[in-house]
Amino acid sequence: MTELLLRANRGEQGAADELFSVVYERLRRQADRFMREQAPSHTLQATALVHEMYVRLFGAGGTAWEDRRHFLSVASRAMRSILVDYARRKGRKKRTPVGDRVPLEAIGVDLGDRTVNVLDLDEALTDLAKEDERAARVVECRFFGQYTMSEISLLLDVPKRTVERDWTFARLWLKRYLDR
After folding, report:
1. What is the pLDDT of residue 129?
2. Could you tell me the pTM of the whole model?
3. What is the DSSP string of the chain?
4. Which residue range forms the structural domain that includes residue 122?
């Protein structure tokens, strides 16, 4: 994967497509796990989510990837962005009289004991990042990237125990924020 990232950075013909084929199954499984937690009325499919992520990551010149960790981190951020944009579009459609209506409240993220609107979660994560950027990244990787604590530890290059502390802090912070 690292070699493919380097080749894609150099702009080699077909390197981005080859890289995508290598990481596709992993990204597809992540998207599938995330989408299973969505409300039944959620119409975005895991495959479409991964393909949209590909367009964002490699379209218009793409990004200069530092390494595997950087690529996977940016992929989880792209997934968050796609889902937030999708929820916003559904919110606009909700106000129009024509077409298939999906209540914005149905587009959410399962927090275990309750489902939270993805737009509310995005706003909360933006505010959390102002207070603790790494904790916000941990939440982003858990919810949108569907990474384990060990994977997040590798992605953020911090000990697993630090990720677990950030996760505990972030969950409490988000609960207080979202309960307001």
Report:
1. 94
2. 0.57
3. -HHHHHHHHTT-TTHHHHHHHHHHHHHHHHHHHHHHTS-TT----HHHHHHHHHHHHHGGG-----SHHHHHHHHHHHHHHHHHHHHHHHHHHHTSSSS----GGGSEEE-SSSEEEHHHHHHHHHHHHHH-HHHHHHHHHHHTS---HHHHHHHHTS-HHHHHHHHHHHHHHHHHHHH-
4. 2-179
